[in-house]
Amino acid sequence: MISLELNKLEHMAEKQNVLWIKEEERRHQDHIRGKLSLWRQIEEKWKTKEILLLSKIGEEVKREARFEKQHKKVKEDAHHKKKAQLEKKITYYLQKMQRNDLQREGSEENVFENKSQDETEGEREIIKDKASYPKIKKVSVTAGHQKSHQGQKSN
After folding, report:
1. Could you report the per-residue pLDDT of 29-69, keeping only the tens digit for each?
2. Mean of the per-residue pLDDT values for the chain?
3. How many folded domains does the chain comprise?
4. pLDDT at position 115, please?
5. Which segments show compositional bias classed as Basic residues (predicted)?
6. Which stretches of the chain drop beneath a pLDDT of 70?
């Protein structure tokens, strides 16, 4: 009987030992599952933060690209305006120079016509002096024209 009791007690001790080992394994598994779950949560948070940061960086890059594009467009527009103004000025001064040349040629023709109509030599000398005077005057006007044209170029 004692041996029966001893067997029962051993059997019960074995069962308790097995139960205790199973309980320890279960606790250990729960602990590992908890750590894995926490690790996954942390990893998800980091992924979310990383995606958010990358999207912010992408937005910033797009904003800078728009700014660069707009800045380039403004510069090109200013360049085109300056080019158009320069072309207008060149056209204006070319036309002005052509008009001056035509006027000069017209005044020289008038002088030569007057020469042929003059009969005395004294009158011819006076006309000759008058013919040389406008040429000198035109040269000084041309020099003044160049100075004013240079002043506008530097502006």
Report:
1. 999 999 999 999 999 999 999 999 999 999 999 999 999 99
2. 81
3. 1
4. 58
5. 146-155
6. 110-155
- The pLDDT value recorded for residue 59 is 97
What pLDDT is recorded for position 136?
Answer: 42
What is the 3-state secondary structure of the chain? CHHHHHHHHHHHHHHHHHHHHHHHHHHHHHHHHHHHHHHHHHHHHHHHHHHHHHHHHHHHHHHHHHHHHHHHHHHHHHHHHHHHHHHHHHHHHHHHHHHHHHHHHHHHHHHHHHHHHCCCHHHHHHHHHHHHHHHHHHHHHHHHHHHHHHHHHHC
Residue 138 · residue 144 · CB < 8 Å: no
Supply 46's token pair: 């980091």
Long-range CB contacts for residues 145-153, cutoff 8 Å, separation at least 24:
145/96, 145/97, 145/100, 149/93, 152/89
User: Can you give the pLDDT at residue 126?
Assistant: 55
Q: Which residue has the tokens 């004294």?
A: 122
Q: 79 lies in which domain range?
A: 2-154
Q: Which of 89, 87, 125, 127 is nearest to 108 (CA)?
A: 127
